[in-house]
Design goal:
Pfam families: Wbp11 (PF09429). The protein has 217 residues and is mainly α. The chain contains eight helices and no strands. Among the domains are: 114 residues, no CATH class; 35 residues, no CATH class. The longest helix is centred in the first third of the chain and has 30 residues.
């Protein structure tokens, strides 16, 4: 038995095909708009420069690949501008700074680097200050004749030398009073009896004096 067609699945497939077709159309429009913003005259100028070099001498493999890529880009730009019609941006005639200085290396630049013509047409505010010119850099190590001047080492600060410590040595002998030092270690009782013998303090009886003399005082 043949399976009956599922209307829900069929509608889902149809919607998916529409979404894919819509996505492809959107991508094509974005690509055409991006290519249409590129200046075909600039690309043609780069092609002419490479062909002029090719007439003088054989091109390097890298330059040959660049020439082929530029020719493909030019055809794609023309198709994109034809698809855009009146919506394609118009470029001023004559060379701009980018046309003069770009050269072959400009072929490797990104498409997003080019300024939109609508953006370039926006006037700057009146109170915008003019650009400040850059001053040429002057190397301070170059002399008037253009020769490099040897770098002078900075002078060392005059730091006074630290003063040497002055030590005074004396050779004079130190005299000690041993008798005076010995009295410091005499017991108090002995010192009291010595004073009594010398007559200091209270008066002693003759018997007490004889007793102290026998004791060695």
């Amino acid at each position: 038995k043949e399976k009956s067609a599922n209307p829900v699945a069929a509608q889902r497939k149809a919607d998916k095909r529409k979404e894919i077709a819509k996505s492809k159309k959107s991508q094509l429009e974005q690509r055409n708009e991006k290519l249409g913003r590129r200046n075909p005259a600039r690309v043609q100028k780069q092609i002419d420069e490479l062909k002029e070099l090719e007439r003088r001498a054989p091109l390097r493999p890298k330059d040959k690949d660049t020439l082929a890529q530029l020719e493909r880009d030019l055809r794609a730009i023309q198709r994109a501008r034809d698809a855009l019609g009146d919506a394609a941006p118009q470029f001023a005639s004559g060379e701009r700074r980018g046309d003069r200085d770009g050269g072959v290396d400009e072929a490797h630049s990104s498409d997003g680097d080019e300024t939109d013509p609508d953006v370039r047409a926006i006037p700057m505010p009146r109170d915008t200050p003019p650009p400040i010119p850059r001053r040429p850099f002057k190397d301070p190590q170059l002399g008037p004749d253009g020769q490099r001047v040897p770098h002078a080492l900075p002078t060392k600060p005059n730091v006074p030398a630290p003063a040497a410590p002055q030590l005074v040595y004396s050779s004079a002998p130190q005299l000690r009073d041993l008798k005076k030092e010995a009295t410091k270690f005499v017991p108090a009782a002995v010192r009291q009896k010595q004073k009594q013998v010398k007559g200091e303090g209270r008066l002693l009886e003759p018997e007490e004096i004889d007793k102290l003399e026998r004791a060695g005082y």
